[in-house]
Structures are given as C-alpha cells and as structure tokens.
Amino acid sequence: MKKHVSIWFVIGLQLALFGLIIAVISVYGIFVPPAQTVVLGELHPGIYWGVLMLTLGVFYTVKFRPK
Amino acid sequence: MNGTLPFGSLIQLGTADFLIIGIYFVFVLGIGVYLKHFAETGESFFMANREMTAWIAGLAFLSANLGALELIGWAGNTYQYGIMAAHWYWIGAIPAMLFLGLIMMPFYYISKTHSVPGYLHLRFGPAARSLSAITFAFMTVLMSGVNMFAMAKVMAVVLGWNFDFSIWMSALTVAVYVGLGGLLSAIFNEVLQFMLIWFGALLIPILGLVEAGGWSGMVERIHKNVPLIHPNSPTTDYTHMWSVMDKSGNNPMGMHWTGIVFGLGAVLAMGYWTTDFLVVQRVLTAKDLRSAKMAPIIGAAFKMIVPFIVILPGLLGLALLPDRLYPEDQLGAHPGAHSYNDVLPLLLARYCGPGLLGLGITALIAGFMSGMAGNVSAFSTVWTYDIYRPLMKPVASDAHYVAMGRWSTGIGVLVSIGTAYLVQEFASIMDYVQALFSFFIAPLFGTVLLGMLWKRATGAGGFWGLLAGISSSIGMFLWVKFDHDTAIRYVALSPQATAMAENMYSALWAGLICVGVTVLISLLTTPKTDSELAGLVRGCTPIPSEGDYPLLQRPVFWAVVVGVGCVILNIIFW
Fold it and tell me: Does A67 contact chain B (CB < 8 Å)?
C-alpha cells in the first residue's frame, strides 16, 4: 500500500515558512516602522515568535522528511 | 502596502498578512488534492484506514471541537461571565474525555463500528440507529451552517470582508479538501490547524499578562473595572470559579454549583464528548485499542490548557481594553461600540503587528474551518453508512458508497451554506439550532451509556428512552420559550437563571428521563443473550489488559496524571 508523507513533515514546512515570513517582516519593521503601532511593539515579539516557529518548523521538516 | 478594506473593520491587514493567509489556503487545498489517492476505498475515505497514532487521533479529536464558536465565543463569554467560563473546559470536558478514553472507547473500538449510530444499531437495532442517525445528520449540517454564519459575521466585523465571500471561500475550501481526501484529509488538516491555532493565539495572553503586570496586576484591574463594565452584576469577583456558586444569585451566570456539576459535567459534557460523532469519529481512526484509549486522554491534556488562549484573553479584555464592550443585542443602543465577541480580535489588533496579525487571523480561519470540516466529514459518514445504505441502497459496491460519501460532502456543505443564509435572514433560528443540538446530545449519552454498561437494556428500551429524552428536551425548550417566567423556575430551579443555566438543567432532566424510560421499558421486554452482546457491553466483552505495557505507556496512568492536573487547576482558581 502507498504511504503518504508524515503529517508532522507538512506541519514543519508550514511553521518554517510562516516563521520565516514573520521574522523577516518584523526585522524589516525595526528599520521601517509600520503605519499602525501596537502595544508592547517595542519588545519586537514578532522576531522572537518568528524565530521560534522557524526553528521548530525546520526541526520537524528535517526529522520527518520523506525517506 | 496595506489592504484596502471597507471603513469600520477592526483590523487592517498588510502584504505579509495576506501572504500567510494565502499560503495557508494553498496548504489546506494541496493536502486534499494529495490525499485523494489515499482515500479511494470506504475504509480509507470514511475511517482514514484506522491507522492514526494516538497523538494524531487525539489532536484531531480536540481540533474538531475548536470551531467557530469556541475561540471567539468563549473569549466573549469570559468577558461576560468571568473565569466561570472555564467550567466548560475543566469540569465540562476533562472528566468526560477521560471517561471516553478509559470506559467507553473499548466498546466503540472492539465493536469495529464506523459511527455512534452504527454502535446503536449493533446494540439496540435499526430503529435506535435510524433515529439517532437522522437527528444527527440533520442537526450537524444545521450546526455547520450556524458556525459558517458566525464565521462570516466575525470576518465582516473584524476584517470588513464581504459576507458572501467569507461563506463561499471557506465552504468551498472545506468541500474540496474533505470531498477529495475524506476523513484522512480532514484529520491531516485538523492537526495542522491545531498547531496554527496555538501559534496564532498564544502570543495574546503572553503579551497581555506582560502589559497587565502579571496575574495579580490583571486581577486588580478586573476588580476595578467590573463595576463599570457590568454595573448590574451581583459580584465583582470575576476571577474565582467555585466560591461564587454557593447560590445562583451570587454569580454573573445565575448558576448554582449543582447545575455545573450535574447538568454540565455529568450529562451535557459527557454527552458531547462521548457520543457526538463529530469528535468520536476522530478517535475511531486510531490504529489499535491502546491508541484509541490514549487519544482522548491526549486530547484532554491539551484541552486543559486551551483556557490559556481562550479564557485568559477574555479576562485580559476586562482588565485592559479601554472601551466597554456590549452584548450583541445592545449594540444598536451604543453606536460604534463593539460586542463581547470582539474581545479576541480587539486584543489581536492591540498586540500583533504585520505578520503576527496574519498568523492570528489564519488561526481564527483555521478554527472555523476545522469545526466545519468536522461537521461535514461526520455528516458524510453517517449519511452514507447509517441512512443511505440501510434505508435506500443496502447492496452496492464499495466504490459506490465512496462516491456517495464525496457527493454527500458537497451536498452537506451546500445545505450548510443555505442554513447560514437562513440564519442571516432569521437570526432566531440560531438559538433554536444550538439549543436543539445540545438537548439531543444529553439523551443520546444516556442511551449509549446504558447500552455499554447494562446488559439488561433492550432494543425497545434503547429506542423509546432515546425518543422520550429528545421529546422532553424539545418540550422543555418550547415551554421556556413560550412561558418563560413560570417554566424557568421549574426547569432551571431559579427565576434568575440565564439561558446557559436553563441549558444545563434541561440537559440533566432530558438525560434522566431517557435513562428512566430506558430502564423501565427494558425491564418489561426481553433482553439479548450474552453471546449476542459480545463486543458491545461490559461483562460480555473481554477487554485486553494494559498490564503488559510499561507504566508510561498505560492509558490509565496518563488519565490519572491529567485528572490530578485538572483537580489542581480547579483548586487554584477556586
């Protein structure tokens, strides 16, 4: 029987992609601040959150990649 | 570039946000297309080949419940009722999920049923199966439509999206990925959506607590704000769960603790988590009995911490939002104000900049779609196996039933869309559908529980008990609707009872009536023999021992761990 890819691989891909987008746009926001400011924006949560998602995403993508 | 959105929306999305939402839809649809080749047989399309690990089945089990009304609705309910809303998680879910895993799952699994109505057929015969299947199928597509309407409304308020666009975009996406990949695709997407919901929503309570100065800072602000936000509330204590429930008039919900413990915990929650096929279907896909028992326990462990992303934001809304929010029906008197249900989107807009905002909105859309997909895939299975096959076409090829499954998925989505538009025209339909659905669940629990644990229960007892329970719940609902002041004193035991308290007590009475009638008629009719009940009832079914597994792999060990955790949480927030 055919075997489909692991669901964790797909989740890893998506987390990595979203994490990358969020981290990049948040770093960009340091140099070009967005028009709408947010509360606690000075903590740059997007950078930490994006990097966390990217790290987890890469881990899952590699660990559960199709053999 | 900012998206051009109509005036009045809470949130404005930018390019990065749209990119994230777009990628999400590509993933979801791509999964459906990819998994079509793995869902060509009835067993794969309807039961996902029964090959899921405990983790995947458990997360899908929980994710199917994280629907439209969950994230937005319970955050709004917390703004209205305070931390008491967490009862719907800790007493109103965890015990029931553990009960399903330890006590009921062995019978569902060993009987090899494909659905809850299918189990009733094996246990009580075709009449009970047909009654439960037709009611479930009917109510499921209606509920799906109600959820769809709620989603489109939220999208209109939060993002300014067109109502028709939201309805058709989400409905067609769900129809494509469930229609192509069946339950396998639904489960794949539900686990994916589960992760997105957490990553999209978790940052809000973290940043909210930072702004409020921690838990104590938040509580202090709530005590200060509640008299202004809820001037008619009998208490300002919105941060304790049990100590305000000694009298129904002492808390904002108008609920006595017996309503929560017996109505919610013992009947309604048990009914929903153990007999609603929408969630039980996910667990039936587990690869073996141990996984099937572990799946609800894993689900319970995560359910226990869902209040962190749903209840806590509601409390943070009470503490931090500068403007007072109002119930939906009072918005007309307060132009420009927002409703209780907007508390989560308002916090999202408060803390999340570009990218994070897209992730948060994707989490909301994921929540909406996982709930809808759960309804549609459960409807498709029940329609095909419990209505179409036995009542219309008993003999046909496996391929024919799979084709019917795909068609019924599409038809289920279309009926849901129709319901959503109907609710748009006649808002009161929403109240009727939600009430009837919850009332139906309570008697079903009584029937299934007696079927599994009492071998003396007969087919006639099961059918008439279920019918009596459903009829009485509808009767109580109509009585309260048309003679509220008198009926509420008897149904909910208090003239101050809210609609929520009424639901709890109605469920309790309907469950008791179902059990009473089932017992009475069973004692007057002839039971099946033990050999006929093998694999279906406790005492007639050999259940494999867990003794051979190491302690850390035993479901009962983890159930105790989760149970103790739940007790500790209740004590902390007593």
Answer: no
How confident is the model over B515-541, as pLDDT tens digits?
999 999 999 999 999 999 999 999 898
Alpha-carbon span B278 to B136, nearest angstrom: 9
Q: What is the DSSP letter of B402?
A: H
Around Cβ B486, how many Cβ atoms within 10 Å? 12
DSSP state of B93: T
Query: Looking at the complex, does the CB of residue B474 fall below 8 Å from at least one CB of chain A?
Result: no
- Lowest mean pLDDT segment, chosen from B1-5, B230-234, B425-429: B1-5
Answer whether residue B571 shows pLDDT above 70.
Answer: yes
The reply to whether residue A39 touches residue B207, judged by beta carbons under 8 angstroms, is yes
Which pTM does this prediction carry?
0.91
Residue-level pLDDT at B503: 79
Q: What b-and-e string marks burial along B405-429, b requiring 16 or more CB atoms within 10 Å of the CB?
A: bbebbbbbbebbbebbbbbeeeeeb
Residue in A8, A22, A43, A64 to test binding to B, most B beta-carbons within 10 Å: A22
What are the two backbone dihedrals, phi and then psi, of residue B322, each rounded to the nearest 5 degrees? Answer: -70, -30
- Cβ-contact B197, B60 below 8 angstroms: no
In one letter, which amino acid is B322? P
How would you write B445-506 as a 3-class SS string? HHHHHHHHHCCCCCHHHHHHHHHHHHHHHHHHHHHHHHCHHHHHHHHCCCCCCCHHHHHHHH
pLDDT, one tens digit per residue, over B102-121 is 999 999 999 999 999 999 99
DSSP assigned state of B549: S
A-interface mutation test, from B356, B365, B370, most A Cβ less than 10 A away? B356
What is the predicted pLDDT for the residue at B5? 38
Cα dihedral sign, B452-B457-B458-B464 = negative
ipTM for this model:
0.95
B169 Cβ contact partners less than 8 Å away, ≥ 6 residues apart: none
Tell me the Ramachandran region of residue B112: left when phi exceeds 0, alpha when psi lies from -120 to 50, beta otherwise: left
Identify the closest residue of chain B to A15 by CA–CA distance: B196
